[in-house]
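Revision sheet: structure tokens.
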Amino acid sequence: MSYNSILVEQKNAICVITLNRPDKLNSFNTEMHRELAAELNRVAADPHCRVVVITGAGRAFCAGQDLSEKKFNPNDAPDVGKSLDEYYNPLVKRLRGLSIPVITAVNGVAAGAGANIALTGDIVVAAKSARFIQAFSRIGLIPDAGGTYILTHKLGEMRAKAVSMLATPISAKRAKKWGLVWQVFDDDTFMDDVMALATQMSQQATVALGLTKQAIHAVSSNSYDQQLDLERRLQGEAGRTDDYREGVTAFKEKRDARFTGS
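Predicted:
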């Protein structure tokens, strides 16, 4: 399928999605929302895709909402929350709900909703020059696209308030130190390093990775006993896969497993 505001490239079992409005720092307009939603729906139905990588074209990952898309009238009282219901909330729910790993590769600035979409990835990696900015307070809004949830859970209440209220840029180095980012790569080798990570994940037991993702997401709302019950159920599913049988066979034969994602 051909798109105008995103680029899609299939590399073996890896689907690379590039936000492609570099002149607008890859900020979201309606077209980009619709195209990204369509592509994620396609990915979810494609058994050949075992890892998704999302990155940005040019010098930004994503600058959030394109405020120039619609004419602004200071006398109006627009319902800004409407775009969350229509686009941003379904997007972050879709990313969290995909049954395969999502790597967000933050190649440059990630601001506003763009920062929080980046932080929604299962594994977040960043170039050394990348920055994360909760820019909402600069225009009189609050963090959205899951920002208040992610920041509070990962940073604690005090840091979440500080980065949200002050809109202070967070460097890739600090983001890693604070646990927002898994790894920071050199700018010159960034996509090579990202693809090496994605290739490693694409060769793992895909169903088990998706079930792991599901179990970890449930922790914040489950009691300990509920989590044990969920682990038992999901482990039962994992144990019925071809990949489990291959993994045990490979272990006994003292060789590397050849997982197929089934």
